[in-house]
Specification:
Length: 607
């Protein structure tokens, strides 16, 4: 079948979905639907030709052309046209193209976030539907539909603008900007800017600030999905990476080039001395680290060697960066987290945009510091390299003062079992490739263990994890707050072993019979516990991840080796993950299925 052969080709190339999407210059969600059996381009279509061209291009880029040819039973010396034809023949030979198109369900509440925010501002300013309708010359029932999330005026620019203007003017007349800032979760100073307050409020009201956040969250999830611990054999010796910088005696460095050399000197000294801890903070634009590919690679390798030497890195991240800069920071920092040698924090106090500060501190060795006017660092930046005990003590006191105003940003665990479900959360949303382990029936778990030969200590660990997760699930479901979104697989994906179970630290695929049994268990739990709401989505952007979010934490878990869970507690990240999950649910063309409807579609035989 198409899905099995497509996935087989990707395995032959050792390619991730992101790699294929990049080679084809298309969205990763499209590749995911192909891998999950939810999309099959027609054999004679332009889409099929793009698949063949993309696979061939990827094979060339990665030096896997011979491997692809062998998978297709072709001579490795075959021409590009022959390999392209072989790809299409392998994908579509015997494929039935008569399957009916699936019908997309219409979302019931497409503008829920807008409705909630509108209602909150109306309550803050004491406006009723009737009063606001009069101010806008709209029928009160129209306002009611706004508040319920069934309508939004965004398509009507005049109405949207008038609504924002009237609400903001009402807030200002009543001197309620502090309450509005708290509601929007932004610094009051941001709303005190007369030139920008309207745009800020408009974007928040219509949930537009998450439009830039969703790609950021999608990239963050993708990076976690492809993360690999870097600690091990370093690509080069420290001396080859920091060069003669460690022999510098200069007290001051100038410009970005100077900062880079100072950092090489600093990290080289850390590697030679192997201190217990170094402390880092910077709100300077990260281009100094990321713009030069060679320096970025040397920096990453030196950081690895610091950790290999037993040095813990404590870093206070700047969360006031824009989405693109945060994405660059993710590319640089996230691969270092699985080492277990990084403690990351975020400062709770709001940042400013006049001066940038950089501080690299090794308490008993040296400190690189710079305070510069934002935007002038490249040409006019000045960075001190202090080694005397007095300045080092002062810098350490400054870092600890900033640390006292900070909260931990991320916890990294080398397991897929840890989640916020086990905490004190009363409301939880789960977004995953399959139903959660907590809802798997005992008989299904027993059948899986018998089929795969799990016994002894492995069985005991699995049963204990089941007990803990099931207790947490029951507590949250009984409080009325467990909402679970899982991917709705196709029969082809199930038969092809492409649907992974949500088992802690085990990569196992369902059989069609096991999935059907789990599905029936989910339906029974939903009927017995009104607080548990399972929904199966037609389009899920990942097949081997799980996201568990509550009001105050988000866990992103990998369901395949190397197993990893990253827990974030930053409020803005929690909100962004919530908006990301909501965006998937209400995406155009999305279909929601109940457990019973999915079982009927899969046509699984009942026992």
């Amino acid at each position: 079948m198409f899905t099995e052969r497509w996935n087989g080709m990707l395995r032959a190339l050792g390619a991730a979905q992101t790699d294929v999407a990049r080679a084809m210059q298309c969205d990763r969600s499209y590749i995911h639907r192909l891998c999950a059996g939810k999309r099959t381009p027609k054999a004679e279509s332009a889409g099929a030709q793009r698949l063949a061209d993309g696979l061939l291009a990827l094979a060339r880029q990665t030096g896997q052309t011979d491997a692809l040819a062998r998978f297709l039973s072709l001579d490795p010396a075959s021409s590009s046209d022959a390999i392209r034809a072989g790809i299409l023949r392998a994908l579509y030979e015997g494929e039935d193209e008569s399957r009916p198109a699936r019908r997309a369900a219409r979302n019931a509440v497409p503008f829920r976030v807008f409705g909630e925010r509108l209602s909150a501002v109306m309550r803050l300013t004491g406006l009723s539907n009737i009063r606001l309708g009069r101010l806008l010359n709209l029928d009160p029932s129209y306002i009611s539909r706004f508040r319920c999330g069934f309508r939004s005026p965004r398509s009507n620019r005049k109405t949207a603008g008038d609504l924002s203007s009237v609400l903001l003017a009402r807030v200002q007349e009543q001197n309620r900007l502090p309450e509005l800032a708290e509601l929007m979760d932004v610094p009051l100073e941001l709303l005190s800017d007369k030139a920008g307050v309207y745009e800020c409020f408009y974007r928040w009201l219509f949930n537009m600030e998450n439009a830039g956040g969703s790609p950021f969250i999608a990239e963050l999830i993708d990076r976690i999905g492809h993360i690999a611990p870097p600690v091990g054999q370093s690509p080069a010796s420290g001396a080859a990476l920091y060069g003669d910088a460690v022999s510098d005696t200069d007290p001051v460095y100038y410009g970005v080039a100077g900062l880079r050399r100072a950092v090489l000197r600093f990290l080289g000294g850390v590697i030679l001395r192997r201190p217990e801890v170094i402390c880092l903070y910077s709100d300077q634009n990260s281009d100094w680290m990321t713009a030069d590919a060679d320096f970025r690679a040397r920096w990453a390798a030196l950081m690895v060697q610091c950790m290999e030497g037993g040095t813990e890195i404590r870093i206070i991240h700047n969360m006031d960066r824009g989405p693109s800069e945060m994405a660059e920071a993710i590319r640089s920092w996230l691969p270092l987290y699985p080492s277990g040698m990084i403690r990351s924090y975020y400062c709770r106090t709001p940042g400013r945009a006049r001066f940038s500060t950089t501080l690299f501190l090794c308490p008993d060795f040296a400190c690189v510091t710079g305070v510069n006017v934002c935007g002038t660092e490249d040409a006019l930046g000045m960075y001190r390299f202090d080694t005397e005990p007095g300045p080092l003590a002062a810098h350490r006191a400054a870092f600890e003062a900033l640390l006292s105003l900070s909260g931990e940003l991320a916890h990294v665990y080398r397991t897929s079992e840890i989640s916020v479900m086990g905490g004190n959360a009363s409301r939880v949303t789960v977004l995953g490739a399959s139903p959660s382990f907590a809802t798997m029936p005992e008989a299904t778990l027993r059948a899986v263990m018998e089929r795969t030969g799990i016994s002894g200590d492995a069985e005991a660990r699995l049963r204990e994890a089941k007990r803990v997760q099931e207790a947490a699930w029951r507590r949250i479901a009984e409080s009325g707050g467990f909402r679970e979104y899982a991917a709705a697989p196709s029969p082809d994906a199930l038969r092809g072993g492409a649907v992974l179970m949500d088992l802690p630290d085990l990569t196992l695929a369902y059989t069609p019979e096991e999935y059907a049994a789990h599905l029936r268990g989910v339906a029974a739990l939903s009927a017995a516990h009104p607080g548990y709401c399972p929904v199966f989505l037609e389009n899920m952007p990942f097949s081997d991840m799980r996201i568990v979010s509550s009001d105050d934490a988000v866990a992103v878990c990998r369901l395949r080796a190397p197993y990893l869970t990253v827990v974030f507690e930053h409020p803005a990240l929690c909100r962004a993950f919530g908006a990301y999950a909501e965006g998937i649910r209400i995406a155009e063309g999305q279909t929601e299925l109940s457990p019973d409807a999915l079982e009927e579609r899969l046509g699984a035989p009942r026992p």
